[in-house]
Design a protein that fits this description.
7-stranded mixed β-sheet, single chain, binds zinc ion, 383 residues
């Protein structure tokens, strides 16, 4: 899940799939590494880029990230594995960068093809992944209270929730065979059924662990920020770094301050900036992100993103304005620049923008540059 710039959607026809791209050729009994692609039909990003370690022997394939659980994505995976002389049943191990469905969504389907599939993820993201079916009612209430605390109009949020509940009920009715459905949301729900299926991770990793198989030695690199347990993978022998969504070539990942971060005093943007520095310090000849283009100069890209967030933090402070009572995160978010005009944002897009604005406010609060006032509705003042 990413924001900040819109990337034009490419044609998603499976016929347009290029063959897998060889990143490292097979050598000395160790297999080759390929870059695949699976389609993302519902966002501004056209593709997820899984990476496949394909041994020369009969041993199974290891993937880093997979894709959504939609038929388009599983078909793309099947065709590209066939190009490599393999089938989905040959996938023995799936390491995921984080718990978002464009990375982990295909896991249930892969396990159906191979019951021995091993899922590997960071322990913090595993907690969220297991808990993703949490009660929606209490989650909605938490998010509504959080929104109001940060300046949302309660009536706007309630109306948007009501509309969403109606839409979900419609989808459920359609999925249950209601022939009167006027559009294809039921199909969408059905297409995403694999994403609902949880696979218990076979291995939970922390920072700096070795993951070894088929002559490869990978090092887990914990990079919290986009998610609490985001994982990059470093291959010292090859000086390659898999960056997941942590570092992409053009856009920057969403880093939000959520209700649970308020409770635990987390500072997600500070974590993200520290993770960027940590990633920049890896001796990398080529970075392999989960979307967009390969990154030849990873330290330079990390520095650009760090700088972008420092500028953004200054802009957010300026957005507080001159009112002696301060400004809410909602007001501040409405005053900073986004990729589209604020007026065109849906309630949900605004909520996500407020999460990003709050992550910047939280960062500069810990630097003593702003302070919050008020206990019902939170307002921000320059310190
Ligand atoms: Zn992603």
């Amino acid at each position: 899940m990413t924001t900040s710039e819109t990337v034009t959607n490419e044609a998603l026809s499976a016929d347009a799939l290029p063959p897998p791209q060889e990143i490292v050729p097979a050598a000395g009994g160790r297999g080759a590494l390929y870059r695949l692609r699976t389609p993302m039909s519902s966002t501004a990003l056209p593709w997820v880029m899984p990476y496949a370690f394909v041994p020369e022997t009969e041993e199974g394939v290891t993937l880093f990230d997979a894709g959504y659980g939609t038929p388009d994505a599983t078909e793309a995976m099947t065709r590209q594995l066939a190009d490599l002389g393999r089938t989905p049943a040959d996938v023995r191990r799936l390491i995921v960068s984080h718990f978002h469905p464009d990375h982990v969504g295909m896991t249930g389907w892969l396990q159906e093809q191979n019951p021995d599939l091993e899922l590997v993820m960071h322990r913090h993201d595993a907690e969220v992944y297991r808990d993703m079916d949490r009660g929606h009612a209490s989650w909605e209430q938490t998010m509504r209270e959080w929104g109001v605390r940060h300046g949302f109009d309660a009536a706007d949020l309630e109306q948007a929730e009501e509309e969403r509940r109606e839409r979900r009920a419609r989808e459920a009715a359609q999925a249950a065979g209601d022939a009167n459905g006027e559009h294809d949301t039921a199909k969408v729900t059905e297409q995403r059924q694999w994403e609902m299926r949880r696979v218990e991770p076979a291995r939970l990793v922390d920072d700096g662990e070795e993951i070894a198989f088929d002559g490869w030695t990978l090092t887990s690199t914990w990079t919290p920020g986009h998610t609490p347990g985001h994982l990059c993978i470093y291959i010292p022998d090859e000086r390659l770094t898999f960056t997941g969504d942590h570092v992409l070539s053009r856009i920057t990942p969403n880093v939000s301050y959520h209700p649970e971060d308020e409770e635990t005093d987390r500072n997600p943007l500070a974590e993200f900036l520290a993770s960027l520095q940590k990633t920049a310090d890896l001796d990398t000849r080529l970075a392999l992100p989960a979307h967009e283009e390969l990154i030849p100069d990873l330290p330079a890209r990390c520095r650009d993103i760090i700088e972008h967030h420092h500028h953004r933090a200054d802009e957010v402070i300026a957005g507080i304005g001159e009112d002696p009572r301060g400004a809410t995160a909602f007001e501040i978010a409405s005053r900073v620049t986004w990729n589209r005009p604020w007026e065109t944002f849906s309630v949900w897009k605004r909520r996500s923008a407020i999460g990003e604005t709050l992550s910047h406010l939280r960062l500069v609060e810990t630097q003593g540059r702003v302070r919050r006032v008020g206990d019902g509705v939170v307002r921000w003042l320059r310190a």
